[in-house]
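User: Predict the complex with 6-O-phosphono-beta-D-fructofuranose.
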Amino acid sequence: MTTMQPHTTEIAPRLDTRPEWKALQQLAQTDGALHLRDLFKGDSGRAARFSTEGPGGLFMDYSKQRITPSVFDALLALARACGVAQRAAAMFRGDKINITEQRAVLHTALRAPRGATILVDGRNIVPDVHEVLDRMAAFSSAVRDGQWRGHTGKPIRYIVNIGIGGSDLGPAMAYDALLPFTKRDLSVRFVSNVDATDFAEKTRDCDPAQTLFIVCSKTFTTLETMANANTAREWLLRGLGGDAAAVARHFVAVSTNAEKVSAFGIDTANMFGFWDWVGGRYSMDSAIGLSTMLAIGPDLFRDMLRGFHEMDEHFRTAPLESNLPAIMGLLGIWNVNFLGAQTLAVLPYDQYLDRFSAYLQQLEMESNGKHVTLDATRVSWSTCPAVWGQPGTNGQHAFYQMIHQGTPLVPCDFIAFCASHNPIGNHQDLLVANVLAQAEALAFGKSLQEVEQEGSAAWLAPHRQFDGNRPTTTILCPKLDPAALGRLIALYEHKVFTQGTIWNINSFDQWGVELGKVLAQRIIPELSGATPKPTHDSSTQQLIARYRAARGL
Ligand code: F6P
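Assistant: Here is the predicted structure with 6-O-phosphono-beta-D-fructofuranose placed in the model:
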């Protein structure tokens, strides 16, 4: 437990007292009330004005956001006043900006080129990063080409990643996203939930002699991961006749905690490390991505890192007015803090990005779901919206009704690609036509008059009318490949950073997950042991009693 007071820079003015914030409040009353129909009608150059191309042809059209040039300028002024560029520079150079844990925040070092220098406590960490990458590459190649064999001499065919949160969501998302690039005769699975069903179903068809477990945990203490890792070890030993020596050929660990890894029984020679300056939700490009490297191979993994790095460099160097992550963050601030949006839908039009929104939920909500400022006072402004979504076109037939005609304002990020990995018939045209149509319909809607002109009866017309004016951003990229995925993730990482900086919160701790963990530890023995003393509230007590009764206790 840290008792030392963190060293902080001077206390920032309250966000809502800044003149730039007040200017935006004013603009929300005027420009914020304008309709996208009128904004487009009044400015033939609007699409070009509010679009930017970033690295790798990543094109972002945010002209369907409810902004005007004055709003855009005011948002940039806010970013300048809040020191987004200065704080980004502090992050990139390794200052301990995670003040509650007194840690540097250096996921960007994970994708720094070999010759770069980034100092943490006076030590250049870039060679350490590349040393681990090289070890991962040697190991991955050995598994992929069959040199690394299981205990009985058979090659590995099943990889099971055991981890949760940042030790699961990124790798699981990346495996799906990069499926066309994977070695298809290696089947990679992800076990995260402490619900035994997850382990049982994912290992159901695995041959223990050909299965490799990667136990991924930054801390190597997480309840779910340790429970699943123990179950995996029992499963393996049962399947291989109980010889404990088998563990060495079937288990590797990814962690920052060598001591716990070896206490678990995994030889630290089979451990891939990372560092406390990598947050769990920012770790998929560290050794936590070992399953990704096993699936796509070291060269493509490095391509992914190159994509990340390109977006890092863009964020670090591009002027604010053409800086994609900064603009994205600012648009979110406008929607949340000035237009009153409480959620953000992220809607990829690519089936391979099936798990992208789930990944972003942790990245955004664990980072910016905070109500205390860096100066330890309560915010009096909204922070992170709830992030949700799933790939189009499926969502169109489920929840889009609410986005079009419901009462909440739901800003959307659409993500689409020009080329498909499966160019069959005209599916890609159908897919892309749909994403463009949704953004158009959300922006412009359909007036009552138009509905009536189409012949709708007066009583029916209000039901068929669309207000429009629903803000969206469309990201259009050439094709989903490892580098494109890296760019896309870094885009969101730095967007989260921009917003955290403006909200003046620490995007890099997660104290809010602690209480539930502690209470669970207290309840675990009460579910199966001697009748617990009634120390809980009556509701919890009642539920415990009912569970115990159902289990015959
Ligand atoms: O409980 C939240 C959390 O700490 C996340 O921040 C983290 O990604 C996840 O648990 C898993 O942690 P670990 O990698 O240490 O097992």
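The first strand starts at residue 51 and ends at 53.
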